[in-house]
Amino acid sequence: STEVIRDTADRSTLSLEARLSRKFKKDEVQLSGRYDFAQTNELTTTDMLKADGLWRHNFSKNSFAQYRPTFESNRASFKSGRPTDYFLLQQEIGFGVNLLTSPARKLRLGLSENLFDVWTTSPPTAHTARTAASAFVETELKLPWGLLLTDRGVYYYSRSSRGDGWENRVELTKKFTETLSTAIRHELRRGSPDGRAQDYDRLKLLLGLDF
Fold it and tell me: Exposed e or buried b for every residue in 102-131, given b needs 16+ CB within 10 A?
């Protein structure tokens, strides 16, 4: 997706994303990558690269384990007016149960342990590592007229005095053909336990091609 706006300020945005998924008899693998860039009056306000993966193994129809690595690079991060660019590596290992497993409805609940490694690239450079427990819920609903609703919510329980955090991603996808689709996505993050990654609230309209 891309956008160029000229009113009281000149603003331009660019967002690129790719996904790869494969399902086996008891395993599911997903890989995705995304790049977001935005400028206002030639000043860079967003420059973020994010990649994440998923490996889910079903022990039975009702239980599973999963591993989710996430890499995030932010070269336009600011706090209190100062640059705080960073690299973030999050590793999530969790176990859960499948409450609904029909082709049209899926509902998963689980608990995870998360390891956050953050490397600050703006002076003064530093590396921090934290752990946090979390609970997650994942939903997939196939709706009429070729609509698919997916949602993943995570609540982080912090063992330190930083407080708890949470994030949520909900997406409504409409397939027009086997290759062409469009989607509306809302992403929210508050109080991430890593101590560096910025909070955000994003709403996006995407056009997609499936291969």
Answer: eeeebbbebebebebebebeeeeeeeeebe
Does residue 122 contact residue 84 with C-beta atoms inside 8 Å?
A: yes
- List the one residue out of 151, 210, 204 whose CA is nearest residue 15: 204
Q: What's the rounded Cα separation, in Å, for the pair 139 and 161? A: 31
How do the pLDDT tens digits run along the chain, 211 residues long? 666 667 667 888 888 889 899 999 899 999 999 998 988 888 888 899 999 999 999 998 899 999 999 999 998 887 777 888 999 999 999 999 999 989 899 999 999 999 999 999 888 888 989 888 999 999 999 999 889 999 999 999 876 656 688 999 999 999 888 889 999 999 998 888 876 677 888 888 888 888 7
Virtual torsion, Cα 22, 74, 170, 17, nearest 10 deg: -40
Kindly list the distances between the CA atom of residue 92 and the CA atoms of 14, 50, 102, in Å, as whole numbers in the listed order: 29, 16, 26
Query: 177: burial class by Cβ within 10 Å (0-12, 13-18, 19+)?
Result: exposed
Give the separation between CA 141 and CA 98, rounded to whole angstroms: 14
